[in-house]
UniProtKB/TrEMBL annotation:
PROSITE patterns: HTH_LUXR_1, HTH_LUXR_2
Domain HTH luxR-type: from-to ranges: 176-241
Entry protein name: HTH luxR-type domain-containing protein
Molecular function per GO: DNA binding
Residue ranges that the Swiss-Prot or TrEMBL entry lists as coiled coil: none
Keywords of this entry: DNA-binding, Transcription, Transcription regulation
Stored SMART domains: HTH_LUXR
Length: 245
């Protein structure tokens, strides 16, 4: 539907009913072009904006505030860790945007809840699993858009079941005062990338090294951490992010 006013033609839908943009912040592998197209079709009144870093999103927002220009903000787990580490989570959620953490790995949501349950609850942050059906994911996202804090029941139950085990693990480490495994700067970069769900090819591009070198670094990281695979390495990172940031 369109109309005119003093010689100016405008589209009612575009000019009167458009909402704030939806921001996707993090890894392109998680927030792919397909995901962006799906969101554009599902939320036609919201522009979909992708940013690979928090600083890029904040630059876009400008003086309006870190996240106040967005209707919803979907971030990956490493970006959430950045918010926790730089102390800006409170200011981000106070700006009014609905914040959700998207993840593809069950180990990620378990450790997010185990380690940051209080912050997630206090700030009304939702957890959105990406390894589900498209219809289910869009339904979850719709709830978030309507102001509901969404945390999958399976995640909450699993986290409650493992909380005592995780606490015992932390207490044991404190009692033994065992230092965390030391990684080189490059190995820490690779570990963070693994935790972010990036494949070897993308890690190689980001770090400007060959895929073969990435595989060597991953082998060393897994060996040093005493884990058996990438999933366990990611879980280790989420337990000790400050040590490898």
């Amino acid at each position: 539907m369109d109309g005119t006013f003093e010689g100016l033609r405008f589209d009612y839908k575009a000019d009167l009913f458009m909402k704030k943009p939806i921001a996707l912040i993090g890894c392109m592998d998680l927030f792919s072009q397909r995901v962006q197209r799906t969101l554009s079709a599902e939320f036609p009144q919201n522009d979909i904006k992708f940013f690979d870093t928090l600083s890029a999103a904040r630059t876009y927002a400008g003086d309006a505030g870190p996240m106040s220009r967005f209707e919803m903000v979907l971030i990956d787990a490493p970006t959430f860790m950045d918010l926790m580490l730089d102390g800006t989570l409170s200011s981000t959620t106070e700006d009014g945007a609905k914040l959700a953490i998207a993840y593809e790995n069950d180990a990620v949501h378990e450790h997010l809840l185990d380690r940051y349950r209080e912050a997630i609850s206090k700030h009304g942050i939702s957890l959105l699993p990406m390894h589900t059906t498209l219809e289910a994911w869009l339904c979850m996202l719709g709830l978030v858009g309507n102001g509901v804090q969404f945390v999958p029941a399976s995640a909450a139950l699993q986290s409650a079941h493992t909380a005592s085990r995780a606490m015992a693990s932390y207490n044991t480490q404190d009692e033994n005062d065992e230092p965390l495994p030391r990684l080189t700067k490059r190995e820490s970069e690779v570990l963070r990338a693994i935790a972010g769900g990036k494949p070897n090819k993308l890690i190689a591009v980001d770090l400007e090294i060959s895929e073969h070198t990435v595989k060597l670094h991953i082998h060393r990281v897994i060996s040093k951490l005493g884990v058996t695979n990438r999933t366990e390495a990611a879980a280790f990172y989420f337990k000790n992010p400050e040590a490898y940031s």
